[in-house]
Amino acid sequence: MLDSFLNYSSILFVAIPAAGALILLLTPNNSRLINPIAQLVSFITMILSILAFIFFDPENSNYQFRQTFEWLNIVSINKIISLDLGVDGISSFMVMLTGIVMFTGVLGSSSITHRTKDFFVLYFVLISGVFGVFVSIDLFFLFFFYELAVVPMYLLISVWGSSSVFKNFTRTKDYGALKLTLFLVAGSVLIWVGLLSIFIESNATNFSFIDIKNHGDLSAKFQIFIFPFILVGFGVLGGLWPFHTWSPDGHVAAPTSVSMVHAGVLMKLGAYGFLKIGIFLLPEGAQEWMPLLLTLGTVNVLYGALSAMGQQDLKYVIGYSSVSHMGYVFMGIGTLHHLGVTGSVMQMFSHGIMTALFFSTVGIIYEKTHSRDINILEGLTKKMPLVTVFFVIAGFASLGLPSLSGFVSELLVFLGLFKTYPIFGVLGVIGAAITAIYILRLIAKVFFGSLQDNQITSTSVAIKDKISSAILIGLIIAVGSIPFPFIAKIENSVHSLLLLGLGS
Question: Which residues of 318-331 are buried (b: 16+ CB within 10 A; e: fewer)?
């Protein structure tokens, strides 16, 4: 019975959040059922995503739990567009990440009291789009779900976000929302041009990755020409330097749960696009342009870490830290080596969980102190010891402490780099050292400095926040302490991706 249920999981990942949005849309505005419905829908989705990952057969690198629904059949030109959904080892990892961040984000949304129903409707639409990208085998619907994930971000930030006032300037929530939208829409245009070009040039009968790959009609010249569209288009969403500037501003302006989704899973769509389209469909273009991606990824790591060191707002620190850590994802992909690419996928998961914990903890701190200013927040461990534990674990995962998830992912990336581009490996290690400096400095100042009593209104942590943090911490420790079961799930899919894409 469970197997039969899981066979439909690919469509359910999209359908359950969408159904949750519809149910909430029909629920009265002032109903007490809004939060319970949101929690139930997100919990069911999380459990399904975990089960799909557990029961995914790692020995089979093909797409599993596959469902295909014909959407449009143009007989005159023999072209078909199908809702083709399935899960491989890489996407199963990303699906589980999305389900967990979705649930913990809902638990962290208790502070949303204004138009709560509308918030969760848009939140579930966004999540449905994210799931759709990770399970789509069809390029048309991958782009459709990509847009579905991007569009709600503007409203979620502009309506429920917050503005930040600094010494010499102000960053309004409207500024953050509009900047994010303009950047991502620009990236979407490039992606759509790239996807349409690939489809037309391949002479495939449908938009399926597999069908396009099997035709094998994409010339090396075409691949080299079109790859920059894919690189820049997906790079924008992934926070690739120099297209990253929307991300820290978006993080700061967004409410806590949206920041968790934004950094935790939304940025991963960019890296996922590189893997599924850049490497798999444009292998010769990838080999030609990957040195550039490696270079930009290295700049990400160093620039993001140095920028994080100079920030005074906790959210900005985490925002630039995300830019830095996504650099390791790009560097791992850029190696085109199974160790580096496996590390890249692990880094996407580790960073997603770690950043979700970061933003969840910062949300608690802001709720209790009404400030995110590092110069004001000092000595919090004396009044908020549990919150200190949450932040320290996230920080240690960020700097790559052994036995935590960040160590495993960065180690694999470094191994891939030293086997292919040793100089970039050295620069990556330097970036990790800088990360350790600003994280330890931040922990020392915010949590172990002189206590500012007047800033703390309450010290209790809500049970929802405890549950959310416990789930995220458990995964950070599990992946870091026993990584091999997780690596085994994705390793064959990575090998298959590189073999079918690059022939090596």
Answer: bbbbbbbbbbbbbb
Joined tokens for residue 455: 């800033």
- CA angle in degrees (0–180, nearest 5) for 29-32-38: 85
The residues with which 171 forms a beta bridge, in sequence order, are 164
Give 281's contacts (C-beta < 8 A, 6+ positions apart). 198, 209, 212, 213, 218, 501
DSSP annotation string for 224-255:
HHHHHHHHHHHHHHHT-TTS-THHHHHHHHS-
What is the C-alpha radius of gyration for the chain, rounded to an integer number of angstroms? 22
The pLDDT tens digits for 49-79 are 998 888 888 887 778 888 888 777 765 556 7
Among left, alpha and beta (phi > 0; psi -120 to 50; other), residue 248 is alpha
- In order of 108, 208, 285, 427, the CA distances from 410 in angstroms are 28, 32, 26, 13
Give CA torsion, residues 2, 136, 211, 75, to 10 deg: 100
Q: Print burial letters for 196-233: b (CB count within 10 Å at least 16), e (below 16).
A: ebbbebbebebbbbbbbbeeeebeeebbbebbbbbbbb
pLDDT, tens digit (0-9, with 9 covering 90-100), for 479-491: 888 888 888 888 8
Which of 9, 5, 1 minimizes the C-alpha distance to 67?
Answer: 9
**Six-digit token pair at 57?**
């057969």
Whether 110 and 466 have beta carbons less than 8 Å apart is answered as: no
- Rounded to whole angstroms, how far apart are CA atoms 134 and 131? 5
Residue 145, Cβ neighbours under 10 Å: how many?
A: 23
Structural domains in the chain (count) = 1
What confidence tens digit (pLDDT) does each residue in 111-151 have?
777 788 888 898 899 999 999 999 988 888 888 898 888 88
Instruction: Please name the residues in contact with 201: beta carbons below 8 A apart, sequence gap of 6 or more.
Output: 217, 218, 219, 222, 226
**Taking a C-beta distance cutoff of 8 angstroms, is the pair 181, 253 a contact?**
no
In one-letter notation, the amino acid at residue 238 is: G
Given a contact cutoff of 8 angstroms between Cβ atoms, the answer to whether 267 and 174 are in contact is no
Q: Retrieve residue 137's tokens.
A: 């085998």
Element (H, E) at 69: strand 64-74
* Span 433-448, average pLDDT: 85
pLDDT of residue 460: 72
Residue 100 is predicted with a pLDDT of 92
Phi, psi (5° rounding) for residue 295? -65, -50
Domain that holds residue 94: 2-502
Is residue 440 exposed (0-12), middle (13-18) or buried (19+ Cβ within 10 Å)?
Answer: middle
**CB neighbours of residue 270 within 10 Å:** 25
Residue 215 to residues 98, 141, 208, 279, Cα–Cα distance (Å): 32, 20, 11, 16
**CA–CA separation, 60 and 82 (whole Å):** 23
